[in-house]
Amino acid sequence: MHITDYSEYQIAYQKSLEEPDLFWAEIAEHFHWRKKWNKVLEWNFEEPNVKWFQGAKLNITENCIDRHLEKNGNKIALIWEPNDPSEAHKTYTFIELHKEVCRFANVLKNMGVDKGDRVCIYMPMIPELAFAVLACARIGAVHSVVFAGFSANSLADRINDAGAKLVICSDAMSRGSKQLPLKNVVDEALKTCSTVEKVLVVNRLNWPIHLRNGLDFVYDMEAEKVDENCPATEMDAEDMLFMLYTSGSTGKPKGVVHSTAGYMVYTAYSFLNVFQYDIDDIHFCTADIGWITGHSYILYGPLLNGATTVMFEGVPNHPDPSRFWQLIEKHSVTHFYTAPTAIRSLMQSGTDHLTPFAMHSLKVLGSVGEPINEEAWHWYHVNVGKERCQIVDTWFQTETGGILISALAGISPTRPAHAGQPLPGIHAVLLDSKGNEIEGNDKEGYLCIKFPWPSMLRTTYGDHERCRQTYFSAYKGYYFTGDGARRDENGLYRIIGRVDDVINVSGHRFGTAEIENAVNQNKNVVESAVVGYPHELKGQGIYVYVICQNMPEAAEQNWLRSSIIQTVAEEIGAIAKPDKIQFVSGLPKTRSGKIMRRILRKVAEGDVSNLGDTSTLLDPLVVEEIIIGAVL
Ligand code: WTA
Question: What b/e string do you get for 517-537 counting C-beta neighbours within 10 Å, with b at 16 or more?
Fold first, then answer.
């Protein structure tokens, strides 16, 4: 399963296309199964119906933890670093992790959680978050982690959509210099949630919390009632392991569903090969477990490989911009995996904060979540990697579960700002607008995948038709990623960005319609239109065009802007706050009432040289007004 040179990659890739069943069956042999599969793959993309390793029985936590106990029980599985450097870090060996996860699982069982129940986890990056996720998997409950930056409204939507029975949260959280209440947010959310029976609260900051009898439970007290042994529940290969909400082109976020065996096999395989993980390596992924990168490359991928994984509660610039480098030196990190937005923000602080740190341990640097611009790539390579580390620019999505396009560190060819070649098993193609495959290199098109891979999404929770429409209907017979890409002269892929109405702000995905819905909740707003525009730090910024009942006077505009920003923070969360708000008297619409977003995007980008034909608009004059009033 471990590819060690480029010719092995080429052979593996070829084999994965020609004999996919055999290829994946051989890889799957490396795991612990209670019972092996009867059939490797069954699929069609019309429904879609994708099933991997049918008939197999397993539990993913036995693969993440139990099977390492005998040989590597005293090896450190998890290193946790708190937000504040003055607080001590914590480590957990595989034996200790096993105990913690089992104890947590027993608490969940005592609280009435059964196999198949959905559990919503709304927590900061503390060890108990990892235990909670793995405890759900241990007993076959479906975890739905909601990033702790989402608002009460967003949390409530996700709880309701999933029909969650239990919410796990903490009293509060520290992030950078801020402390935020989490239990209060949950209390607020639960006002509109009817499926939640209980709330389990982990203590992080000793904040006073309001405990309701029979509804709220404190983890430490519940943990005293149970022991540290919990047999793993036997799961079918295709049983749901987790869901994770992500934004799409329409207003409502969807619960992307991942199943057990396929997700396990692919995240382990991709982790091992992309990062070229070696037995004593220390892997530090800076993502939050609220996103897919955290699921796959802080928790499951590393633990499945018996690796040591670092989990960090804080942010890159707290208490100062050297925090990452200090942590790398402190824990002899070999693999550092972060997002371009973090790199760009650290770049802004110059290089003095890096100079004292040689970071000799580092071997591989990773980038994920959005296209990395060449300048950031070089800065990363020179200043962090000291020109001796491999860089892997890894492309994937919540829906793909694991990395699909990336160099294998030190093995495949790399080029700045290019993700590289698809992993074995990933039949990537570029399509033109008519849905024809574009052959050859030095070409650009819509990035699609032609054949199933084990960790692909199985459905969108509670709405299979939405899954079909979103991913499998644009191009018949293909999974459509929503991204545009270019294949360079040597066949390396460069991801250009989303071609749908999704914007990527600091690596976080939002649907433009989702933000419009939020903006429209402000009582002063009649209508709005949201577009992305290039933003130096965030990759893309959020630009909102707003129509009010009457065009606001200049003096009113500032408080109106604050009020709209506040509304978005309440509806979605602070991570979706608009960067620019322009008040307009109308929007450029076609005669059939469709907003011409192309024009709005151009104006937001500050490039009005080529707006195309505007004569077909309902009111061409509105374009003039928008150009004059643009917020640049
Ligand atoms: C974008 C994050 C360029 C892309 C793992 C994709 C990237 C979306 C890269 C998925 C990359 C992710 N280069 N763009 N290396 N990685 N993207 O679901 O547009 O939060 O469709 O998963 O992020 O975002 P998601």
Answer: bbbbebeebeebbbbbbebee
Beta strands 39-44 and 49-54 are antiparallel
Give the position, in ligand 1's atom list, of the atom nearest the Cα of 393.
15
| 65-233 shares its CATH topology with 506-628 | no
Q: What is 65-233's CATH number?
A: 3.40.50.980
The DSSP annotation for 494-540 comes to: EEEEESSSEEEETTEEEEHHHHHHHHHTSTTEEEEEEEEEEETTTEE
Residue in the structure block whose two tokens are 């009293």: 171
CA–centroid distance, residue 369 to ligand 1 (Å):
4
pLDDT in tens, 414-424: 999 999 999 99
Ligand 1 close to Cβ of residue 123 (< 6 A): no
Tell me, which fold does domain 506-628 have in CATH?
Answer: GMP Synthetase; Chain A, domain 3 (3.30.300)
Q: What is the pLDDT of residues 561-594, one digit of tens each?
A: 999 999 999 999 999 999 999 999 999 998 888 8
- Find the 370 Cα to ligand 1 centroid distance in Å: 5
What is the Cα–Cα distance from 629 to 418, expressed in whole angstroms?
37
pTM: 0.96
**Are 482 and 502 within 8 A, CB to CB?**
yes
- Distance CA(184)–CA(181), nearest Å, equals 6
Give the angle subtended at the CA of 404 by the CAs of 401 and 410, to the nearest 5°: 125
Residue 338, Cα to own-chain centre: how many angstroms? 12
Domain boundaries, the chain: 65-233, 506-628
The answer to whether 358 and 386 have CB atoms below 8 angstroms apart is: yes
Strand, coil or helix: what is 289?
coil
Phi-psi region of 203 (alpha: psi -120 to 50; beta: other; left: phi over 0): beta
> Is ligand 1 within 6 A of the CB of residue 338?
no
